[in-house]
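anyone else get weird line breaks when pasting these?? whatever heres mine. first is seq + C-alpha cells for prot A
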Amino acid sequence: MRILQRLIFILILITLTCSQISCDSLEQGSVLYLILGKLKFRVTAISTEFPSRLKSYDALFLQDLNKAPLETEIEKIQDFVRDGGTLIVSGGNHQAMAELVAAFGLRLRRLENRLGFVHRISDEPFLPLHPADEIHVQAYFVIETFERDIAMLYGRGNNGVVVTLRDGEGRVFFTTSAYLFSEDGLRNSGNATLLYNLMSTLPRNARIGLAEGRYYTHESKPSDSFVALVFKTPGGLAAVYICLILFLFLTLRGRRFGKPLDVRENNRRLSSEYVYAMTRLYQKANTRMEILRHIRDRFRADLGIRWRVNPNLGTTTFLEELTQRGAVDEEGNLTNLVRDLERSGNISEAQLLEIAKRVEAYRETSKIGRTK
C-alpha cells in the first residue's frame, strides 16, 4: 500500500512539473513582445508585478497607452532620454499621446478623416538599411512641430505620422498609430520593416522596457496586487505548487496534523466496580476458577493484541515473546501476574479479588485493552 501511495505521489509530481514546463515553453506575451525577443533583445514587460526601472533599460517602448503617465513619470522619462536612452511611443488615446508629445515640444492635431496608408516623406531615408516606402497606419492624429525641429519620416504632406527628434544624448520616435505595431498591423510588410529598422538603431542585445496599454512605476502601480503576485509570477506559482504537492503528499501518507489523543471515556466504570460485579456474579455459582480463567483469557488476549503475540502459546514461551516485543515487566510483575493466573488449585475470594485488582492495575499502567 505504501509503495502504491509513493507511485501516485510521484505521478502527480511529474504531471505538475510537466505542465509548468509546457506553460513556460509557450513564451507568454504579446506578438510585439515575442518579436522583440526573437530579435535577440532582452525585453521586460512592464506591469503591476514588474514596474518600470528606467536605469535598467537602454530603450523604453510605449505601445498603445490608454492612460497618460503621471507628471513625475514623464519627467523621469525625459531624463532617461537626455541621458542617452531611446524612447519609442506608438499610438494610444488622445490624452496620453498629447501629454507625451507636449513634453518634448510637439503637439497633436486631430484629422477629419482617418489616414490609411502613408508614404516615406524624405527621398533619403532616415533608416537606410531596409527602407519601407509605404506603411499602413490607421491614424486619426498627426504631429506638428512646436518650437523645435523634428524629422518627419512618414506622413502625408505636412502631416507627420512617424517622426523622430534628438533630445540631449538620446533619441525619441513618435508614431500616432497604435495599429502600426499591433498584431494585425505587423502582418503588413512595410510595418514589419519599419519595426526592424527602428530596432536596428539600438545596441545589440539591448535591454528594452515594453509597456503595453499602461505604463506602471512604483508610484502608479496598484497597491492590492497580492493575488496577481501569487498567481501571475513564477515565484508565486512555484509556492502554490509546492503547497499543493505537500498537501497531497500528507493526504496520501495518511498523516495527521497533531498528536493522536486517547479516546475520551466519560462513562467508564471504575475498576473496583467491575471486579466486585464479576465476583458476585460468579460467586453465586461457586465458580471462582471460571472467573479466574475468564480474567486470564481476557488478559492474555489483550496482551497478545497489544504486543502482537499469540495468546495461545505456553506460559513460558508467551512471556519470552512479550519480553522480546518490549512488554513492561518491572521487577517481574508481569511474569508473576501471568503465572498467578495459571494456578490450578482452589482460590479464595480474597485471592481472586487481589489478582483482579493487579490485572486492572497493569492494564492502567500499560494502557492495554480497558473494560468499559
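and prot B, same format (seq, then C-alpha cells)
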Amino acid sequence: MCGHRVLTRSVIPMSTRSECMSLGDEPLHHIILYNQIELFMKRISSIALCGMFSTCAIAAPHATWQIVDCQERIVISQLPTIVTPPLATHSSIEQGDPFVIESESPNAPLSLVEAAIAGSKKTPAKIAVKPQQAKQSTAYQTPTKKVIQPQYVVTKGQSYMTALRQWVAKDKLTRVAWSLPPETIKTLNETSPNGEVFKGSLSQVVSTLGKQLDTPLHFAHNPMKGLSAIHTLGSNVELNWVHGATLKAAVHNLTTDFDWSWKEGMTIQGGSWMSPDNFQLAAPYPIVSPRGDFAFALNTVLDGYPVQAQLLYGTQLIFIMEKE
C-alpha cells in the first residue's frame, strides 16, 4: 500500500509580516524545514532500495507545501508501507509462499532474512591430512645375538665320574671340592652305554645327571673365593679354602673363617691345640659344608689324623686333642 502524511505547523502572528504569507517568500525556517524533509525522504528511499518494503515502496516519496486556513502544511505522498512477511505454516510451504524458503534440515522453515544469513555461513572445507609415517631411527642398533647353550658330553663307554672331571676342566675350574659318599661314587663310576649330550649351565647339567642316575648331585660355585664343589649336601652350602703350613695352622685359619675363638698354647689352660703332636699339611685344598656348620667342616679337615675336636658352643671355643 502507498499513502501520504500531512505535517502541520501553526503560524505565530508577527507585526512585521502579513497574517498569511505565501509560499514564494521562502523565509529561513522554511529552508531549514525543507532540508529536514529532503533528508527524511532520502532515508526512506534508501530503505526502499534495500528491498525491505513492498513493490510500491520503490517510488520516491514526494512532498508539497500548502497553506490552509493560515496554517502551513507539508504533504508527503507516495510513502512506502512496510510489509511484514507472514509466519510460515505447513500450508504456506505446500502452496509455495514466496516469503518462505524450505530448509533441508528437520528444523522450521527459514524466512528470507534467515535464509540470507544462513547462506553467508559457509562450512569450511575439510583439509585432508596425510598421516605421517614413523621415522626410522638412524641410531646404531646392536644386533641381537642368539644365545648358544653350552654342551657337556658323556661319550659311549665313558664313566660319569670321568665326564664330570672333564666338564670341570672344560670350564677352567681348578679349586673344586668333591664331597661324595661311597654310594654316589659307585654310581658315578658306571659307564654310559650309548653316550649322552647335556645342554645348559654346569650347575643344570650336574643336577640333570644326578636325576638321571637317581642320586643327589649338585654343583656349587663361589666366584668371590674362586672355589667350586660337586657334592650331595643340597643347595645351601659354604665353600672354604683350607690352608697353612701345618694342620694346627690350617685348623686355626678355619676357626677364624667361621668366627669361632682360638686360644694359643699347648695345654687346656693355655690354648686350643692340646695335642702333643702337630702334622704337616701337604697342600691347601677346598672343602664344602652345610652353611654355618663348623663341626662338619672341621671333621672334614681332621679326617685321617689321630686327633679330634671338642667345641664349646656357649663360648665358641675350640680344642683339639688326641683321639682316645
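btw re prot B: Residues 2-80 form one domain. The mean pLDDT is 76.
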